[in-house]
Protein: Hcy-binding domain-containing protein
Organism: Onchocerca volvulus
Amino acid sequence: MDTLFIQEKIQVLDGGFGTELQTVGYNIQFSLLMLWGFLMCRSEILELLFLRDHKTTVNEAQENNTQVLQNNSLWSAAALFDKPELILQIHKRFIEAGSDIILTNSYQACISTMINSRGMTKAAAESSLKVTLMLPSDKAKLVSLAKQAVEEYSVQKKVKIAGSIGPYGVLLNDGSEYNGNYIDELEEQVMVDYHMQQTIPLLQAGLKVIAYETVPSCTEAMAILKAADAIGLSYNFWISFSCKDDEQTNHNESFCKSVEKISYHPNILGIGINCTSPNYITPLLQSVSTSVNSLPFIIYPNSGEIYESDTKKWRNGKCTFPNIEQLMEWKDLGAKVVGGCCRVGAEKIKELSMLVAKLNSGYSVS
């Protein structure tokens, strides 16, 4: 196990890569808001998304949303093909904000999707997945994007890199990774093969730690363990669940029982929770704090904001991330890495980093 990756003090993970790409002006049509509109079938959200850019009706938007999702199926990974320099820029923005760990921009970079949507060969798609770590300096040579960003700040701090892999649902381009419905009809071996296919190129690119993210089901988590065993290479990983409430994963399974089933694996660094409301994190951690023994938690929730359809604006919710009270609770319950997911950009990571520094220096509420 990579004992240097998880440390005694709390470390800061980066935030939502797609969120930060949008902040710097990159047009991600398959945005978080589009996804929520697609899943919720909220006419107000669909109107905001589709009428503004496509001048169509809400009914047409609902009928056509699958095609739009397919056309933008690489999501933030599409920047690899048209704005690769932005990937380096985003990594640097998160490091400057205080991230101790950064994730590669490979969550949505499915090999099968690149083959189907870009007409690439399998070999070319695998190379492109490695390129999510790399920036072409000429047509023959590649330099690791994430490593380049880390090296530029190596004098100030040592930043670690983990490879990001989304669940099987991202391959379907229909938002089903957020409910896990595909689990019910899919053979386990299909998920095993998918995770092997996504993992191997990242390991070949030199990564030693992989983050399997937004996993909606224990069934897929078990498939990930089988994939790791089948790969047979020496690497560590964490599995991060996405949860619909303070007890269940997005596929309506007990988070506590899911963690108990996977925590035995010798190469697992910790248990994650991501793409989840910050309001649910404390009770989720409380439910498993005695079940996973010494495994640390990697926590990177959504911002906690609420979208108001009448004003078409976001507002702070009941529990907005980050705040010091949350972090103290999570630390006491075993969190060793904290970061952010949807709508958590570099500015929020900077806030988070300052709060974590206070906690690591012994801050407590008197």
Residues 30-71, 133-143 have pLDDT under 50 and may be disordered. The chain has two domains: 11-21+76-360, 29-71.
